[in-house]
């Protein structure tokens, strides 16, 4: 596998080694030893999540203030623009974000460590996203930062307003959100 650094050193793009022929393809989407040895990711995953969304749906920016989740994210159908925002006040990259395209074609994965908000925008007609998490879903600790917070200035690749859940419509700004120390 190939590990690609991003502008935020803790957030990594993982490109698997793909074996393809006229029958199709094969790749390891996760190998605990390879992730530890090559990417320094020594996470224990406890939950797998699968979402399906239509074009221009934006999910996020979500995080859990307690029972914080590291996430290994990939798109298995379609394409998304995936974003991680550093919410660790003690970090030199606090309030910065990184984004990348994840698709069924590029087979990339994004490692989003604990202490980050995460979200994605669907670029294709439909997208299905799988992600592994390092802790269980705890709705009482879930938080949301609004997708268009001017302090973050995320360059979402869309000209129209995205489709949001009711919860995502009332997300907080970085300046008023509960963040990690």
Write the layout of secondary structure elements.
Elements: E1 2-5, E2 12-15, E3 19-21, E4 24-26, H1 32-39, E5 47-54, E6 58-64, E7 71-77, E8 79-86, E9 97-103, E10 109-112, E11 116-122, E12 126-133, E13 142-144, H2 166-169
Antiparallel strand pairs: 1-2, 2-10, 3-4, 5-12, 6-11, 6-13, 7-10, 7-12, 8-9, 8-11
Fold and architecture overview:
The structure is a single chain. This protein has 181 residues and is mainly beta. It has a domain at 45-169: Sandwich (Jelly Rolls), CATH 2.60.120.10. 7% of the residues lie in helices and 40% in strands. It has two helices and 13 strands, in the order ββββαβββββββββα. It has a six-stranded antiparallel β-sheet, with no helix packed on it. A hairpin with a 2-residue loop joins strand 3 (19-21) and strand 4. The longest helix is centred in the N-terminal third of the chain and has 8 residues, at 32-39. The radius of gyration is 16 Å and the shape is globular. 32% of the residues are buried. The model has no long low-confidence stretch (mean pLDDT 97).
User: What is the radius of gyration computed over CA atoms, rounded to a whole number of angstroms?
Assistant: 16 Å
Helix content: under 10%
- Mean pLDDT, to the nearest integer, reads 97
pLDDT < 50 stretches: none
Task: Give the H and E element order.
Answer: EEEEHEEEEEEEEEH
What topology, given as strand order, has the largest sheet?
1-2-10-7-12-5
**What's the main sheet like?**
6 strands, antiparallel
Global structural class: mainly beta
Could you tell me the strand content as a percent range? 35-45%
* Total count of helical runs of at least 4 residues: 2
CATH topology of the domain at 45-169: Jelly Rolls
Q: Mind telling me the CATH superfamily name of the domain at 45-169?
A: Jelly Rolls
Gap from first CA to last CA:
33 Å
Work out the number of β strands: 13
**Structural shape:** globular
The CATH architecture of the domain at 45-169 comes to Sandwich
CATH level 1 name of the domain at 45-169: Mainly Beta
């Amino acid at each position: 596998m190939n590990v690609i650094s991003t502008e935020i050193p803790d957030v990594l793009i993982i490109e698997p080694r793909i074996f393809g022929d006229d029958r199709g393809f094969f790749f390891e989407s996760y190998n605990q030893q390879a992730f530890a040895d090559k990417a320094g990711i020594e996470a224990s995953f406890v939950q797998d999540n699968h979402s399906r969304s239509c074009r221009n749906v934006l999910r996020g920016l979500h995080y859990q203030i307690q029972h914080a989740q590291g996430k290994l994210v990939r798109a298995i159908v379609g394409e998304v623009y995936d974003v991680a925002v550093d919410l660790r006040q003690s970090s030199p990259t606090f309030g910065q974000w990184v984004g990348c395209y994840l698709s069924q074609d590029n087979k990339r994965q994004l490692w989003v460590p604990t202490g980050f908000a995460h979200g994605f925008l669907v670029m294709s007609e439909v997208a299905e996203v799988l992600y592994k998490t390092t802790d269980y879903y705890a709705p009482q600790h879930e938080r949301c930062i609004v997708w268009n917070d001017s302090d973050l200035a995320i360059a979402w690749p869309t000209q129209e307003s995205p489709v949001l859940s009711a919860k995502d419509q009332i997300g907080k700004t970085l300046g008023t959100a509960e963040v990690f120390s």
